[in-house]
Amino acid sequence: MFKGFKDFILRGNVIELAIAVVIGSAFTALVGAFTNNIINPVIAAAGGVNADGLGFRIWPDNEATFVNLGAVLTALVTFLITAAVVYFIFVAPMNKINSMVKDRLSTEEPEEEPLPADTALLAEIRDLLKEANGRGNRDLDSDPIR
Q: What is the CATH number of the domain that holds 79?
């Protein structure tokens, strides 16, 4: 039972996934800091207000009805930055590497694998039968036994 769990944990994909989660957490903190400290002030300068307070109240007398568009805008910018970095740092290079490997494999001619012994023997018998097809055959219509 523990051997199966150990094999599962030590499999490459699980370890890579764990590394990706750790790096993703650190990257989320980096993107959050970038968004909060650089993007939000730019939005606030353009809009004249803090991006966190950018929005409106459905009922002016009730603060609980505030629709915070700034938070949605911040989340959208964070998502776009994260997606762009992941694409350009990880996806695009991996696609290029996979394309290069595929091109390299397609240019190399595959080596012919030797036939298994039984298949080679059957091919030899077939060739011998083809060769003997014109020799020693008698015409069955002129068979004197009939």
A: 1.10.1200.120
